[in-house]
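Minutes, project check-in
Item: structure for the 200-residue chain
Input as provided by the requester:
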Amino acid sequence: SVCMEIAFSDLPALFLLADGMGGHENGEIASKTAIDTISHEFDLTPNDFNVSSAVMEAHEALQSMPQASWRAMGTTIVGIYIGESEASIFNVGDSKAYRVRDNAIEQLSIDDVSAGTRNTNLLQCLGGGVKRPKAHLFDVAYRSGDIFVLLSDGVSDCLSDREILDTVSTASEKSACWLCDNAVKAGRGDDASAICITCT
């Protein structure tokens, strides 16, 4: 869990949260590989960062790794690239991105899950098979005081939007920790990860 403030002098900036898929081997390695690959692409050309290309690089890196079993490594990814005038939100899978503004919360990411079934099935991820994922990507305006929140499903499945809003609206440097702690107390034992970014 991480909380931070981002100022104009820090831009452009990239924030990523990956959640290795439950039941898939080496989920921790899968999530770290995805983050390392995308971060490396950003470091090469921070002002001309190509989200779609970087996400595909991460997928291909996971696909090329040797597997110790028949189940390929997989991970979800959610991220935000903050430029000088707008932010680019992107995700593959069910990790989520929110924007908190004026005491209201809005989900910005799109959930890659099956609808209308008793058990939620993930429709796409990085690695984890042969299907080429397509990252959901769109740009949003931001202003001073906005808070962007990135969450794994271990948090978002356990806390309501209202609970997330109430926690991050305190503008505390411990908001991300509180989100994870509350999710663990209310949850099913899934990994809980959170990043909170305040625009100043």
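Outcome recorded: The first strand starts at residue 2 and ends at 6.
No further action items on this chain.
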